[in-house]
Amino acid sequence: MIKFPAKVFTPEIEDADLFGTSVFLAGTIEMGNSTNWQEIAVRRLRTLPINIFNPRRVVAPDEDKIAEQINWELDHIASSKFIYMFLAGKSVSPISLYELGLLQGGFASDKTVVLCCDPEYTRKMNVKVTTTHPAFVHPNIYFTHSFEGSLLRMKEEIKKSFTST
Q: How many CA atoms lie within 13 Å of 164's alpha carbon, on the beta-carbon side?
């Protein structure tokens, strides 16, 4: 059996065994109606010695658990050095856009964000223009349309952090 160094945490899994570098998987969930891209991202990243925070639940939270879910996500976005964000085709993902706005507005000053905007994403032009506009460009946010390419970029950025410390 192959053992991977990464530890994967979801809102259902207590994160008491954290170590070192963390990455948060932000982006489209659409209340479970989107492809489970997080599962693929975890498979690609789990060979690294990192914590991976995956907000996707097996079952969407009940109304009384929504605040708990939101706080879990915001806490882990805040504590993670790396954010991987995927905006899926044919989705709107308003909460993900809000999170991107927080990150672009300075919340990511000490983070590296790899943003993948699917070519069929409903608001791709909005995202491209706002992330590349000279007044709002953030040096640590990398924009791409390639899912596989963006995961490779995320791995490279994480690996670079290991050699620079």
A: 7
